[in-house]
Write a structure and sequence with these properties.
The protein has about 450 residues and is α/β, with parallel strands linked by helices. The chain has helices spanning about 75-85, 100-115, 130-135, 140-145, 165-175, 190-200, 205-210, 215-230, 245-255, 265-270, 295-305, 320-325, 345-350, 360-370, and strands at about 1-5, 10, 15-20, 20-25, 25-30, 40-45, 50-55, 55-60, 65, 70, 85-95, 120-125, 150, 180-185, 235-240, 260-265, 310, 390-400, 420-430, 430-435, 440. Bound molecules: N-(aminocarbonyl)-beta-alanine (URP) and zinc ion (2 copies).
Length: about 450
């Protein structure tokens, strides 16, 4: 199938240009001011529209066992939601169970996703049970197609955290084997101390989720992780940044030559901690918590000054009935929020409202995640890359209603949020996959991508 998109404005990470783009089967074959329509099976007029690379959500948790349950989107519903929102690739977290080898957990996740995903996917592996055999497996991670792993400084009760010495060793091994280490930064001892105190005092509402994991808790974690990475001279990727002083510490480290990548998420750029005082507080319970206004401003400033590298979602939804487990004890509210369907809508809408440029949006959700996480054929509209493409109508409008979502959820932090622009068409490696609200491909389309 040969497709030609004519008359649109292509959004590159560093410029926007009025160009035609052609693709044949899976790959982009030509980009030029004028491409003759002769010989094409499919010609699309994109006059007054933008042509953009599909987004890459570098942080999802599909079917994640967590908080006494499993996150409600599996690879089928999660990837469907991704597709509807113009996300044509995601990197999901394969979290090690105690005793598992890294290959076992990877193969388990690949099996869960096989023939279920509408869009391409890769995996980061989260190490929770480090030992000599796991250290040895680092040498083989690249052969598995895994070039990034994750460490949690938190979730001690769930036995998911690594201690500081282990984190240093993993960062060292990461550097030695060219594996990027992603770190969830919060001070877990301080969290536990605060939780104990709050519960003793009968302070049980979800507001205390925020107070037990406030700006200080996150900043201490970020500073410690940066110090450990510096000590072993290793690059580090800090996931889901939400706090102003954490970002300040990252800015300082970057300015002083440390190799640090910073990710944030739409929930931290849109909401503030007052959500934890609302009736729907449980829905916003995620870690790190959503912070105060000053943190939100600091995150936007870090985007404008190029210190944030990636916006990803940390998509990890739970059902309302599960969120209600914490009604009388905030520590029982499962941690996580939805986002994958709204990632691109959110950044595009922000761009169309002049919060950032469309090129910057592409850089943050496509170009940079592809570059940082070795997705060689993704991330840009470029000859030779996969034809993962969206067509954006900048004059459209989308209001998110949970009842219309493709995600398997019965609540959303994005309910009633209004986005400028509509993603009218989505191409997944050259095939028209989504148009006018309809899914046009099958769930076998997405492939595991070695990276
Ligand atoms: O609350 C969150 N973020 N849940 C998912 C696990 C994690 O920490 O990324
Ligand atoms: Zn995390
Ligand atoms: Zn996460």
């Amino acid at each position: 199938m040969k497709t030609l998109i004519k008359n649109g404005y292509i959004v590159f990470y560093n410029k926007i240009a009025r160009l035609d783009v052609a693709f044949c089967d899976k790959k982009i074959t030509e980009i030029a001011e004028y491409i003759s329509p002769v010989g094409f099976d499919n010609i699309i007029d994109a006059k007054d529209k933008y042509i953009m690379p599909g987004a890459i959500d570098a942080h999802t948790h599909f079917a994640m066992p967590f908080g006494g349950t499993i996150s409600s989107d599996d690879y089928e519903s999660g990837s469907l939601a991704a597709l509807a929102g113009g996300v044509t690739c995601y990197i999901d977290y394969a979290i090690q169970k105690r005793g598992d080898t890294l290959l076992e957990i990877l193969n388990h996740r690949k099996e869960l996703a096989k023939n279920k995903s509408y869009v391409d996917y890769g995996f980061h592996i989260a190490i929770t049970d480090f030992n000599e055999d796991i250290a040895d497996e680092f040498k083989r991670l690249k052969d598995y197609g895994v070039s990034s792993i994750k460490c949690f400084m938190v979730y001690k009760k769930e036995k998911m955290n690594v201690d500081d010495i282990t984190l240093a060793e993993i960062l060292r091994l990461g550097k030695e084997n060219d594996i990027l280490v992603n770190v969830h930064c919060e001070d877990c001892d301080l969290i536990d101390q605060r939780i104990e105190q709050f519960l003793k005092e009968g302070k049980t509402s979800n507001w205390y989720h925020y107070l037990s994991r406030d700006e200080e808790v996150e900043t201490l974690g970020v500073k410690k992780a940066l110090k450990i990475a510096k000590d072993v001279d290793a690059p580090i990727y800090i996931v889901h940044n939400a706090s102003k002083d954490g970002i300040k510490a990252i800015i300082y480290a970057k300015d002083n030559g440390q190799i640090v990548y910073a990710e944030t998420c739409p929930q931290y750029l849109y909401f503030t901690n007052d959500v934890y005082q609302s009736e729907r507080a449980a829905q916003y319970v995620c870690s790190p918590s959503i912070k105060g206004k000053e943190s939100r401003t600091a995150l936007w400033e870090a985007i404008w000054t190029n210190y944030i590298d990636v916006i990803a979602t940390d998509h990890c939804p739970f059902k309302l009935s599960e969120k209600a487990w914490g009604d009388n004890d905030f520590t029982k509210t499962p941690n996580g929020c939805d986002g994958v369907e709204n990632l691109y809508r959110f950044v595009i809408s922000a761009a169309l409202k002049n919060r950032l440029s469309l090129s910057k949006a592409v850089e943050l959700v496509s170009h940079n995640p592809a570059k940082i996480f070795n997705l060689k054929n993704k991330g840009d509209i470029e000859v030779g890359k996969d034809a993962d493409i969206i067509i954006l109508n900048p004059n459209g409008k989308h209001i998110y209603h949970n009842k219309d979502t493709y995600s398997n959820e019965d609540n959303s932090i994005w309910e009633d949020v209004s986005y400028k622009g509509t993603i009218e068409e989505v191409y997944v490696h050259g095939k028209l996959a989504f148009k006018d609200g309809k899914i046009l491909i099958s769930k076998e389309e997405g492939q595991y991508i070695k990276r």
